[in-house]
Amino acid sequence: MGKIKSLFSGRLTASMLSLWSILIVLFIITGLVDHYFFTIPSIGVTFQLAVPLGLLAAGQTICMLTGGIDLSIAMIATGAAFIVSIKSPSGLGMAIFYATLYCILIGAINGLAVGLLGMNPLIMTLGMNAVLIGVFTVGITTFLKGSSTMPDIIIKLSTASIIDPISWPLVLWILIGGFVLYLLKQTGLGRLIYAVGDNAKAARLAGIRVWKVQLTAYILCALLGGLAGLMIGGQSGAVAMSLADSLVLPSVAAVVIGGTSIMGGMGGYTGSIMGTLILTVLSYLLATLNSSEAVKQMIYGAIVLALAWTYSKLTEKS
Amino acid sequence: MSQSPILKISHLSKSYGPVIALRDANFEVLPGEIHALLGANGAGKSTLVKILTGVITGDLGVIEVSGKQITFTSPDNARKGGVAPVFQDPALIPDISIQRNLHLTGTDKSRFLKEILAMGLEVDLNKLASEIELPLLRMIDLARALSHDPDLLILDEITAALPVDMAEKVIAIMGAHKAKGKSVIFISHRLAEIEEICDRATVLRDGINVDTFDAAEGSEERIVAAMLGDKNLSNTRNLNRVNKASSEVLLKVDSLSGGKLLKSVSFQVHKGEVLGVAALEGQGQDLLFEILAGETKPAGGKIVVNGKEVTFNHPDDAIEIGISYVPGDRKSALMPQRSIRENLALTRMRGLRNWGQIKFKDEDEKVDGAIRSLEIDTRARSQVKRLSGGNQQKVTIGRWVTTGFDLLLCFDPTRGIDVGTKGQIYELIRKFADEGKSVLLFTSELREIALACDRAIVLYEGKVQANLEHKDCDEESLLNAAHGLAVKK
Amino acid sequence: MNMMLVKRQSWNIGIVLIATILGAWQISRLPVFGSYEARTFLLGILPIALLSMGQAIIIIGGGINLAIGAESVLINCLAARFMVGKSFIACVLLTLLFLLVSILVGALTGLIISKSKIADIIVTLATSFILIGLAMYIQPSPGGGMNLTLAQMISGKGSAFLPPLITLILPLVVIWLPLYRSRTGIAMFAIGSNKDSAFLSGVNVDFTRIKLYAVGGLFAGISGIALTAITLSGSPFASISNTATLNSVAGAVLGGVALSGGVGGLTGPALAALILYFIPTILLNYGIDPAYSQIITGALTILVVLAGGLIRNRGKKN
């Protein structure tokens, strides 16, 4: 009886509408500047490029809904890609297994520190990122020596097109994105993620073991980050230390633009998907404008700020 | 008295969204007068004080100080205008020293030390505010306010939970301030203090001033009558109902202690019984409820449920054996940005086995049932922060209706709630008892004990001062016991 | 009274002890330790120490600035671009002008945070893009310079260790000390400690926040000028600014500034920069990969925040 509809409020759809209009306007402007953009293959490529950011944003959304943030996601992604490329000679299954183990381990450390020890998530994950950079910098010359190319199947999964504009990565994103949406809207865990972010004390008084929810959120975030890392690795063919660096801040930005509050409890993955697409089209536009990297950065930052500001005003009113 | 008033408020009103806090307040303070401001919780006292001290601005109405119309835009502004407040929670910055706190407000140090000396106190100016005990901190805040030589001093519940000697000092200071021809607005729930020191009293109810009179000896009845106003409340829930409580003991608390305030509390709750808890502020009642809810660990003593001794490590442990908690502050019970449904169904998600697919059909049933039986207004269902206080409180209770419980711990559930909803909540509590469930009910409004409870205990200084049967639960006895006096038989 | 002082200063005393031990260790490894080596030390820590101080001020006031590294890089690039080949007098005037710019950039950041009511993290994430973009626009590739006389006045020459020492200490004495004693400075501690109490004490919270970010910006600006004087060039790299921001947070936290705001000073962060500098140098001496220092820094930051949080929690419960 309208139970799914009731998950959206009137205000949420209003802001979703504004996200759609921003995306469409950006889309049209980009198409006008670069006519090639409107072709089917180009749209396919745009989607394909959006996938890693979309997956990182999915993890970030889950974390931020609980009132946290994960800035170690760069090294989680890069680390997972490293592990897969190095372990791939001993079989893809083993490689994926080790990478998964790695993600769960890092996610669990983050989650336990935040959930049980009450660490500030920003510092925890920044610190974790520094530690991981150190570990991998040392590792690639010692215990993690080996191949730095991604296995073919992962390259295929992250780049190959099925029928333009549908590609394997897009299919993967639809599957995983669908799962994240389902998780957040239709499951008990999803409810708890929102509840913990909205009011952790109240959740505790209602009998919820808050730390378990936070632990799960950080593990899920790490797993999604790891998957994104494999996609980025697959798309660039080889791994490097700075693989996912440039996507960390955009992953936070995509979530914020999409209307998820950094204080937690408000928002959802639908908005983050929109945020991801907006940022991807924006990058494309900035690239085609032939502008320098400097101008790109400035416009990028200004637009993220403007969108976040607009959104906060929009929600403040009602 | 034909003097021109130092403060004159006319037709002041203020609303927060749909909630009207002040409707039409009119109020005068004369020079050299100690004026009591009274009212039940939610009557608009705190809103009025906030407007007077520049914390918020009113929507409509006029404030005149010494005949000049003004609007205070900030606390600093108000202080410069001669109005200085002292709140129950001292407005000193916790992490910096007293000296720096004084500097922050531009307070003269030697003047401040003189005031402190006059109080017979000693203060180490180098101590951080957070290192000082609350009572002394309040006195420091008061001395700081006095250093500015305000024409109008506003004391908001400053004597609440203050030790007797300190409270006496406050009374003496008010007298001295009055002797200088300056005025004081005094807010207190201790009626004896008001009779002792105040010249006049104004009572607020539902955002309107309903009565102003000389606060002479014996005006207590008039105060209470004006505060309560609506006589219907007591008539609808008269006292001749049947006590269905069984003799079976559900909860037995044995010399429970914890924190600084809770010394040693023992009592029993029977099945199907509503046990009232009465106490003035700060007698350890908060902690008692938190311990029983599994939120805080006790320092000592035993909790026995259905004959078995229990220890709680987490509220979930208490909920598992049937003890549910409705905290006094709705902010710590609700997810403000989530819907009524999610708030009501939250406790259903306890435990890993409920983390999967939500059973929407079952949830619909339970949630709709709770909404119906509690008569929750669902017009603003998408976010509970947009509900009125009464509806929010119903949601916090309704949560436990959807999950079920044996013992409900209700901490001041009617604080700041309109009279109609109050009646509904008490009716609901009676209904729980009729169904064989037990309720432990703390209320800050003593007369409500008689309306909703079968028995009552009164806490004083962290101990059970009195154990009263229903027939003895009149306000006078409760009040006497709450002040540590013997109950007259 | 004296015990109280010792207790309150215990963190700083600890930091001094650790820095001294590490320093002694490092010095013992050197064949000679003279003023030349002392100057090398000072040049190694000068930019990051100043930046940590700037971050510390902002965290004390209840904020956090993730664009502080970008701000320093921007001033570095501005200085290097416009001071190259200029006379001493011109360079001095330009220095003053650019410090003014850094104050304005900080104030603007504070203004945006106050007006938009968006979380500090989000606003400064976005401004970090804009500022780095600006820096790249001004100085597209590494280069530029500064009048040598001025540079030597700031950073010294050969074994003249006094100039960098003065550059480090002067801002503490000239900016921080008077500020700490003034009502504005107290107001900064106040809004970080408890916004409501601060407001009730008559503090204009929004205006104080703007001043807070302005002072933080000034320290970032001084750090940028110092960097220019040391390297005699401007380096417009996001990676530099990100690392600098990270280290500034680590420095502030290690230096005893509580993330919850209201507690701390600037001497601690300056000394903490010394520790952060010694760790990699000592590792390098022993032939250990300096990447380990990243692990140690990250882990140290986490542990310090964790310990600080646990101590505070215990204090609350008692």
From TrEMBL, chain A:
It holds the Pfam family BPD_transp_2. Keywords: Cell membrane, Membrane, Transmembrane, Transmembrane helix. It is a multi-pass membrane protein. One of its GO terms (molecular function) is transmembrane transporter activity. It is found in: Cell membrane. InterPro entries: ABC_transp_permease. The chain crosses the membrane at residues 12-30, 36-55, 62-84, 96-119, 126-146, 166-184, 215-232, 238-259, 266-286, 298-314. One of its GO terms (cellular component) is plasma membrane. Its main location: membrane. PANTHER family: ABC TRANSPORTER PERMEASE PROTEIN YPHD-RELATED-RELATED (PTHR32196), RIBOSE IMPORT PERMEASE PROTEIN RBSC (PTHR32196:SF72). This is Unannotated protein. It comes from freshwater metagenome. The lineage of its organism: unclassified sequences, metagenomes, ecological metagenomes.
Automatic annotation (TrEMBL), chain B:
Pfam families: ABC_tran. SMART domains: AAA. Keywords: ATP-binding, Nucleotide-binding, Repeat, Transport. CDD domains: ABC_Carb_Monos_I (cd03216), ABC_Carb_Monos_II (cd03215). One of its GO terms (molecular function) is ATP binding. Residues 7-231, 245-486 form the ABC transporter domain. SUPFAM superfamilies: P-loop containing nucleoside triphosphate hydrolases. PANTHER family: CARBOHYDRATE TRANSPORT ATP-BINDING PROTEIN MG119-RELATED, GALACTOFURANOSE TRANSPORTER ATP-BINDING PROTEIN YTFR. This is Unannotated protein. It comes from freshwater metagenome.
From TrEMBL, chain C:
The keyword Iron does not apply. GO terms for cellular component: plasma membrane. It is found in: Cell membrane. Keywords: Cell inner membrane, Cell membrane, Membrane, Transmembrane, Transmembrane helix, Transport. GO terms for molecular function: transmembrane transporter activity. The keyword Membrane applies. This is Unannotated protein. It comes from freshwater metagenome.
